[in-house]
């Protein structure tokens, strides 16, 4: 199961880090406490729509862009059967694609590569990257 707050937090953190800005800078610009913004980025808190709009504004991003990115990540995870299965239940061919202990590689249509790290029995991190990246493409990290 994918937690929406984790995907939102990962997308916000990726945008902030891509701009090489600190939590303090963004929290001040968004008028939110540094600790609360940190909890949002870590997926521990789910921001209200008003707060999410303020954070996006502080990052110079459109709310619709962020939500589209989040939606694309969730849609990708939903389309990949068995992505979030227990590592013990992993099929033999997927185990052959393992890149590290607890990490396996899954690809969709040849345009997107997805690696899944099973952090614990109830937590997995999904990382998707474009196989042929362009300037507009970004890595998307999703944890559930």
Descriptive notes:
With 144 residues, this protein is of the alpha+beta class. 44% of the residues lie in helices and 20% in strands. It has helices at 4-18, 23-30, 34-41, 49-59, 63-79, 92-96; strands spanning 98-100, 103-107, 112-120, 123-130, 140-143. The protein has a five-stranded antiparallel sheet. α1 (4-18) crosses α5 (63-79). The longest helix has 17 residues, at 63-79. The radius of gyration is 16 Å and the shape is globular.
Quick summary:
The chain is an alpha+beta fold. 44% of the residues lie in helices and 20% in strands.
Give average pLDDT, whole number. Answer: 75
Note the beta-strand portion. 15-25%
- Helix and strand pattern: HHHHHHEEEEE
Determine the N-to-C terminus distance: 6 Å
Q: Into which percent range does the helicity of residues fall? A: 40-55%
Number of strands: 5
Query: How would you write the strand order of the largest sheet?
Result: 1-2-3-4-5
Sheet with the most strands? Answer: 5 strands, antiparallel
Low-confidence stretches: 84-101
Radius of gyration: 16 Å
The class by helix and strand makeup works out as alpha+beta
Shape designation: globular
Question: What is the count of helical runs?
Answer: 6
Structure keywords:
five-stranded antiparallel beta sheet; alpha+beta; 6 helices; 144 residues
Write the layout of secondary structure elements.
Elements: H1 4-18, H2 23-30, H3 34-41, H4 49-59, H5 63-79, H6 92-96, E1 98-100, E2 103-107, E3 112-120, E4 123-130, E5 140-143
Antiparallel strand pairs: 1-2, 2-3, 3-4, 4-5
């Amino acid at each position: 199961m994918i937690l929406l707050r984790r995907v939102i937090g990962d997308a916000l953190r990726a945008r902030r880090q891509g701009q090489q800005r600190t939590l303090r800078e963004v929290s001040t610009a968004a008028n939110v406490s540094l600790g609360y913004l940190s909890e949002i980025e870590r997926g521990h808190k789910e921001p209200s729509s008003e707060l999410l709009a303020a954070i996006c504004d502080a990052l110079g991003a459109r709310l619709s862009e962020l939500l589209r990115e989040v939606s694309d990540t969730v849609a990708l995870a939903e389309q990949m059967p068995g992505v979030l299965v227990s590592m013990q239940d992993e099929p033999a061919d997927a185990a052959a694609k393992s890149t590290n202990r607890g990490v396996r590689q899954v690809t969709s249509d040849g345009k997107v590569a997805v690696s899944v790290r099973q952090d614990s029995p109830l937590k997995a991190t999904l990382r998707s990257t474009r196989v042929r990246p362009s300037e507009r493409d970004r890595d998307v990290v999703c944890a559930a």
